Amino acid sequence: GKSIWQITPPDRAFAAELHGFAWLDDLAAVGDGPARKTAQAWIAEWIARYGAGRGPGWTADLAGRRLIRWISHAFLIMRGQEAEATDAFMLSLAQQSHFLGRRWQA
């Protein structure tokens, strides 16, 4: 099947849902092995494609949404994952937290 990151979003709202990781809630609700592996693959691909801190998904609101979901579903994401993938996930969490911290306005 196609990766979620190969889809051309039809509009900005769809792109925001993709990069805000709204779909991760659905995969976590299913919670079985295939859903977990899909979540892991799509997150790894997002990190490879967009993890540099610029481009789609790098606004404060989307980074915040993404962080909430990644942290909320961290056990699902990291379970059974290779150490290298977990390290990349944790590094990306730290980078996104730093990004958000620099842009946070209370």
TrEMBL record:
<dbReference type="InterPro" id="IPR008929">
    <property type="entry name" value="Chondroitin_lyas"/>
</dbReference>
<protein>
    <submittedName>
        <fullName>Heparinase</fullName>
    </submittedName>
</protein>
